Amino acid sequence: MDYASASEAPQAALEACGGECPPTIVFLRNCAAVAQSPAGAAASAVNRWRDRARSRAMIACARSGPGCEITAWACTAH
């Protein structure tokens, strides 16, 4: 997280997961959030503000089913 260039981030993610990678989100100078439900609904969102990214991920996830919770979020400076 927080790599100096957009090309460094996906390469680091691929190396970290050993080739069995889940979907990834690449974002620059933003925040991203992932919301998931126990039933398998999932959504992500990117926004300049952390709380907006979290809120939008929750709203998008809730469209697919109830019980969504934020399972991951991060913000970058680069």
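(ticket continues) Second input and output from the same batch:
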Amino acid sequence: MVINQFYDINDFLSQIENIKKKKNVEYIEAVILWCEDNNLEIETAAGLIKKDSVIKDKIQYEAERSEEHTSELQSHWYI
């Protein structure tokens, strides 16, 4: 399915922000929920995310922050 060529990036970003706020989830979870709601594969959203560096950076930041938090928790358990 080649929907990402025809889907408006601004509409996509707006929907992701709305899902994130309404469901109180991180960006990647909002993207997954958007895909589920629209019966689309995650690859479709990936194509849209690649078009916008801002959301790409937000997803990366959240992933890195989550990794750091996981490392901190693990270091407390492995004394």
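Agent notes: The chain has a mean pLDDT of 85. Helices lie at 9-23, 27-37, 42-49, 53-77. Closing as not reproducible unless the customer responds.
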